[in-house]
Queue: 4 jobs
Job 1
Amino acid sequence: MKRLLVWSMGVGIIVSMTACGSSNKKPAQTLSANTVNLIQASVTATANFEDHPAARPSSTKTVYLTLDPVISLKADKPVQDIVISAVSVTPLQNTESIRLLAPSHVATSDTVDPFFNNALGSAPDITAVKAVSNVTYAGGTQDYPLYADQFGIRQGMIKFRLLISPVGTFDYQSILARDHAFTNNLVLQYTGLKAASLNFVVTFTVQINFQDNSYTTATMSATVDGAQLLQNGQTTVNFGAVGQKF
């Protein structure tokens, strides 16, 4: 295996040079490195609490995190599909499950959350959300994708979500009695969690398969600062430098 490790602003991108295996029916894919421009790559971590109708009667609220990577890419040649795999979040304490969520086939103009499949602005039932092992975006036939699970011919933006739950709990009525108010972006502070327990690294692999049976791949990694997340209830971290190619 041959790898090229590129560091930028403390964030590493590992470009894998390992050839994919082939089946008896298809010729082996060939590596086509330095064919995709990384225009944007960031992840936003957001804390929230369960507030769907079934959870509202209880004063004890469960806090969860959503991690929303956003990756904007432009390729030098037509894309067949893009696969996100090997997603990990380590180390993360005080949680029972980390679920990878794929976007559903909804139009990019719809007012529906493509990951929770509920109307934007409404509270989702996170216990009902189904996880997947990887996320695939189909290459489109137009310059820009029309659906959340598609990519353009050569360019587009891909998004997926990690749902981490539970990360803690708090008593809603006790907070109201103590503070005479409730602030959504303080839900992590209400749990009593410390910043150190919210430090974690999110890592995943992106493989772009081209229509000419070649591919390129990169593993992206970024560190989320628990102190920022605890203080603001949300933080955004970049994966790599704009303009980098893989």
Job 2
Amino acid sequence: MSRRIIIRNNYFFYIIAWLFLGHICGLLLSVLLFNQINPYYYKQLNKITQEIGEIERGDCIFIQSCFFYRMKEWMLLILFSGLASYFIMYFIYFFFKGAMGGMLLGILLQNFGIKGIGFGLVFYFPQEIFYLFIEVVTVLFMIARKNEKCKVTWKRCSMMGGISIGIFISLLCILLGAYLEGTVNTSLIKWFIQQYNM
């Protein structure tokens, strides 16, 4: 199968910019609203430290919940593509995603100092690499089709077959991300908590 996609506008840059802007706003909000939101985040952090062992022993249940949660996010992106204001919805989605990460990082930084930065990165590694990859590719593809700015050449399979392969690869990446979140990520969080007595 040979496939060539031409995208004239740099939408990838927009997505990265939205995430970055969301992170900055999230950091600022974590400082301005620290007294209001810190109790909630601290409570959640304590819950994670107490349940991390149970999550490790029950990987399958946790992996399943991660998979279905990320599936909902992915389907939400596809749903946005059908709206007239899809570009604005994409902005809201990635800005909000960045803001949540920025608030978490800001709270951890204010509570634990430099260690909080490492702890915040551990929360997202390595599963977020796969999740973000699928989200970006999905958005770029949907925008290209929406704006009719892509040129696709099919030689060995039909268009429906190509879309089916794309969906299969997306689901596979989401499943892999969920598996890493339920195994590698939980082990990293547990190690970080024990290593730095958090």
Job 3
Amino acid sequence: MRAKRFAPFLIQRAGIPRRAGELKAISLIIGVCIVIGLFGSVMAGLLSFRSTEYTEPHVVTTGAGVTSASVVLTQSLFDDSTAFVTITSNNTGDAAVPSSYTSATRTLLVGGLLESTAHYLTITYSYGSLGSYWASDISSRAVPVLLIIGVIGVIGGAVYGSYRRNEE
């Protein structure tokens, strides 16, 4: 009766790696998988580090045939993007959404409002919290790039090491 064969680069018959290099390759693969799995959490943490959430109330009135209103915000939007803005209204018929943003005047255009109605809007948005700490802002933007380069480097190093080990 023949012994069962396993992939030689992963495990031996008893389930123990044949050489220390194989154990190193397996641990590198597991480490890369962990880093890739945690990448989303790192990105969310960096966003939270770079921005602060702010909520402010506004009262606007729309006229006949008008379904949008301009609102001047207290702070500038984070990265001048409306992606970090949520708007709620007291009117159940409103579908309040941020339409556009003018950074020079900090004016947000809110669309999807009912016409000829007074609206009590609650606008929640993120603004940049590292304005005075420009070095922290720049370095926190570089962290995802460094993580990607590190993962690619670890994978490349593992491949190079396995080929070099096979040549010996």
Job 4
Amino acid sequence: MANPRFFISILPSHLSLLSGLLSNLLLGLVFRSTLLCLLLVMQAQANLCGDPDMYRGGSYHNQPFALVKLKGAKEAQLELMLKQFNGQWRGDGVEIRCSKKGTGKSLFSIEASGEGDKTESELRLHKKYKEGSSTVMFELFLKDGLLRHKRESYSDLGLSKLDKNTLEFSVRSGGRTRWHTYWRIQFSNKVGSRYKKMKIEKSFYNKGGLLGAESWDLKRL
């Protein structure tokens, strides 16, 4: 007959082993739960930053960067579009910023003055927030058949779309995969030879990660 003291002596070791297994199991569940929560938070931020009304999204972001030298009808089409910036504009804007702390959204009103001819355009925007204001210069120009952005830097643009009322392009700096800015300009409500409405959208990335987006809705005065 077995000695009862033997069972008593091995019982604590069994309990210790069982406790270790349960502890490891709980740690695994906690790790998986934490990882799931982080993924859900990241997905929620991506959904907010990925509002399709704010920027073109992943398919636009992944388009190849290509310099396009415009000739003939396409060059004439861009020349007509650059002239559309002329005049006084007023409207509203929204700005989204993404960071590790979360996503912030700001609304502002816009007063803008534009100048343009067949080779260059300039739009000066005065943005008024609930608290404070700022001024932004938006410049495009055509040189040797290439569309460029900001005269002082002579940045070449990757042109992805150009038709009678829409222009889409990207600007890259710091190498092929570092800083990307994507722009979309669309004119609408044409009366005679002039469009009465203009919408400008941009989204900016660093190493493929979305940092923010902005949209300006303007009406000609």
